[in-house]
Amino acid sequence: MNDKVQPDPLSLVLIALYKGVVTAERDPGLWQQLLELQARVRDHVRLLGLELMLDEAEGYAWLRTRPPREGEPELPRLVTRRQLSFPVSLLLALLRKKLAEWDAAGGETRLILHRDDIVDLMRLFLPSGSNEARLVKQIDAHINKVVELGFLRRLRGQENRYEVQRILKAFVDAQWLSDLQSRLEAYRAHLQSKEEKE
Predict the structure, then answer these.
(1) Which of 19, 69, 150, 172 has its Cα between 20 and 30 A from that of 142?
(2) Phi, psi at 189, each rounded to 5°
(3) pTM, whole model, 2 decimals?
(4) Long-range contacts of 16-23 (CB under 8 A, 24+ apart)
């Protein structure tokens, strides 16, 4: 007779959230438990100075540091902030813009891009050089970082194809995206003047 004690569902949900993003697509059972235990999760993480960010329509959730309320002391950060390099930030912004265009077109919900498409997006904004292979290798490194951060997912069995994860919408907000074009134009002009001086 096997009387194994099952882990508490709240523990499983909390551990998954402390490790990173929880998505409906990746683990539907865990996602369902999160939805059912949402109030308890919120109460638990609030004690640690965190808040649950949950987008049920898009199917993702994560924890972020809760800003202190007026008169409340600020707790030490539990969730670390990551400083991203300019090329990685640029790639995230370009992918977010592409996702907005994809959503506006009203087609499928999943945005799948080939590595070559991503290289073409980035090529306009990186210093051009004589070594094309080196440029592509650098862009591959940036793509790998974005995969590691969880905003791109490699498709199994489909070499060099990536799905843009919809949680990117929560991290690159609409205001930042609306300012993107002017920022990119300024950066492109800076690159051109730099190349002309060399």
Answers:
(1) 19
(2) -65, -40
(3) 0.69
(4) 17/41, 17/45, 17/52, 17/61, 17/62, 17/63, 18/63, 20/62, 20/150, 21/60, 21/61, 21/62, 21/150, 21/167, 22/60, 22/61, 22/62, 23/59, 23/60, 23/61, 23/165, 23/167
What domains lie within the chain, and their CATH numbers? 9-65 (1.10.10), 86-197 (1.10.10)
pLDDT tens for the chain, 198 residues: list them. Answer: 456 777 889 999 999 998 888 888 888 999 999 999 999 999 999 988 899 999 998 888 988 888 878 887 777 777 666 677 778 888 988 899 898 888 888 777 789 999 999 999 888 777 666 677 888 888 999 999 999 888 899 998 888 999 999 888 887 776 666 666 666 676 667 666 666 665
